[in-house]
Amino acid sequence: MAAAVVPALAATTLLVSGAGPSHAAPAWEPKPSPMTGPLTNQAHRVPVDDPLPEYPRPQLTRPDWADLNGIWDFAVTSRDAGQPATFGERIRVPFVPESALSGIQRKITQNDKLWYKRAFTVPSGWSGRHIQLNFGASDWETTVWVNGRQAGDAHRGGYDSFSYDITSLLNGGTNTIVISVYDPTETGGQAIGKQRIQDVTPHPGKSIVYTASSGIWQTVWLEPTAASHITRLDMVPRLEDNTLRVTVRGAGGADGTGVKVTVSSGGTAVGSATGTVGDELSVPVPNARLWTPEDPFLYDVTAELTGGAGADKVGGYTGMRSIAVKDVGGVRRPVLNGNFVFQTGTLDQGYWPDGIYTAPTDEALKYDLQKHKDLGFNMVRKHIKVEPQRWFYWADRLGLLVWQDMPSMDSGKTPDSAARAQWESEYRAIIDQHRSSPSLIQWVDQNEGWGQYDQARIADMVKAYDPSRLVDNMSGVNCCAAKDGGNGDVIDNHNYVGPGNTPTEPVRASVLGEYGGLGYRVPGHEWYPGGGFSYEDQPTTAALNDRLVGLLDGIRENTMPAGGLSASVYTQITDVENEANGLMSYDRQVVKVDQARVRAANQALIAASRSVGAAVKLPVGQNVSIRVTTPGYTDRYIRHYDGLGFTEVVDAASGDLLKKDATWTVRQGLANKLCYSFESRNYPGEYLRHREFRVRREAGDNSTGYKEDATWCPVQGSGGVRMSAANFPGQYLRHINAELWLAQSGGGHAWDNPASFTEDTTWAIEPPWAP
Questions:
Q1: Is 454 left (phi over 0), alpha (psi -120 to 50) or beta?
Q2: Helix 541-554 × helix 595-609 angle, to 10°
Q3: For residues 73 and 623, is the Cβ–Cβ distance under 8 A?
Q4: What pLDDT does residue 11 have?
Q5: What is the pLDDT of residues 641-666, one digit of tens each?
Q6: How far apart are CA 767 and CA 771, in angstroms?
Q7: How many CB atoms are closer than 10 A to CB 240?
Q8: d(Cα 568, Cα 552) in Å, to the nearest integer?
Q9: pTM of the predicted model, to two decimals?
Q10: What is the Cα–Cα distance from 285 to 239, expressed in whole angstroms?
């Protein structure tokens, strides 16, 4: 990446610490963390007075700022109470009071209101400039007073940043900030993601929702600006004409002001353009070096108002890349920079045992993303949570494609009109906040029907608001009473353990928004010892590695080329509380899997996607017979007998009944149009399907399970085709001892015997024995 980006962020230092909080409260001390490790609750890694000191907004940098993170006075009152007379506790901001790192560590309910207080002074060098008070995020309704006067309206939202111009409220000396936050979590109607009000220390319970995070949970900071200043850079790369389209947003009368935007690399300008604030500028970026996960090259960007001396100037960065959906070999697939590359990623919840919603350090925030790279993944799905801008900065720098979920409302409710208006307003604010991040390629509107409503309209709204990215109207449309809006750029199934197939469509690309969930509990690294659970427990790390690599290999060999799948999200990168299905333990001390082996499997999957050809074609609507290719058995064919599947020798002298039993009509796959189903010639309406591993001829009941069991996805083999189950990629139609089974090489059953496995799962499609 361009060398100038790093100093613009890392070299910024705190200009003034400000006066400390009142000494009426007792001395602050941390609470014991449920789990500790090299990235977590250690004094030398999480400073008391200046936690998370890094510049918090890498896409809009200025040289002067003051970090207000650290120890604040704190109090909790009833939800309707006014400002307390005394603040009897102290809290370390920006860690939420439910967390150990805050020093409070107790449950906050819908009956509570949080109060924060601290003093600060404005550096004399900021004289004559406006002072902005910035919040990365605070959950949920936040009201701010400076020197006893309220700073603007209360802000509602748990995931978007917000600011107040407090210049007129300052007194020229020591100033006092008081902040109240009310957070009803699931008892309200707002976006909450996986937060639920519950005990804040480890407890039993198999739950996929976690401890709530109330109040301030991202950096609070001061920044001096000109009265007329820049508030945002909206940047969209256009590869078709080698330009960066930039719209500079402003405040304080900046609209219509002249502005100049420059794109540079290594300190050398490559293009610039002038225009006015609020209008789109076209900045040339000739011979653009494209941003990819393999080469996440970033250009530096500067924008400055041209109204005279002292005019505002900000820095940022961009990556030149495109994302779209198009036909590739007859299949709709997402394309990065015009080329299909399979997106293999994990579900990333973004929780920490000591900070809950807030990573203890910037190093820790980066760590999970770096582990994705180390394990060979090229994508991450940030699951119903929105991280600080520095998380996106690290994704941009390290080179990870990001699917960003909008945090869901409570899964057990139908949102009312007020909740819907708030949710959509916050969603648009989140899009605005992160719309210039090159790593972010897809918005995920809703998940598994949680708080679902108006899916189609919302997908259209998001696509119109940010047409430069893909939109997923519902992740997990096949799950949990979710409803597919029918639009957006992808159709997204969930399948545990899976991976299974997401049915292909003519317009949308098929993706797998969640699969996996393989579990392994690591003694000494459990949130609640003995309380961990998963979708499929593994007895050993060797079994975990074999199972995970088998899933990835199944996608590479079958689901991607034969089933048309274009992306998959493995659950999950870390354990979270009592979920023990992470690739790492919750404290990040243990990587459970063989990193080199998983990396190789992911790299093989990505490499295979770059040369994926057209799917194997079988003659739909025609009768065929399916012949064994195993040497010594090539005169045998698939037939049914008393409803079960066998192989048997068939030749010209065979009886009519045997010939009919050995003849099948090829149909378009009942569960996936790229795959196939085989209808019995003499029992119309009955198909070759697997059930309890045994392959049989059976009538359908129109259920999803039957359709998937009766759908086979062919891939080219040596001397024939291999047919994997649509819902179990990596498991193949196999003959062994003349019986037909669904088998996987090296599995735990007799029919999984690896001897002659490839030959036994390869079939020749022949003319029919019975017309």
A1: left
A2: 0
A3: no
A4: 28
A5: 999 999 999 999 999 999 999 999 99
A6: 9
A7: 8
A8: 9
A9: 0.93
A10: 9
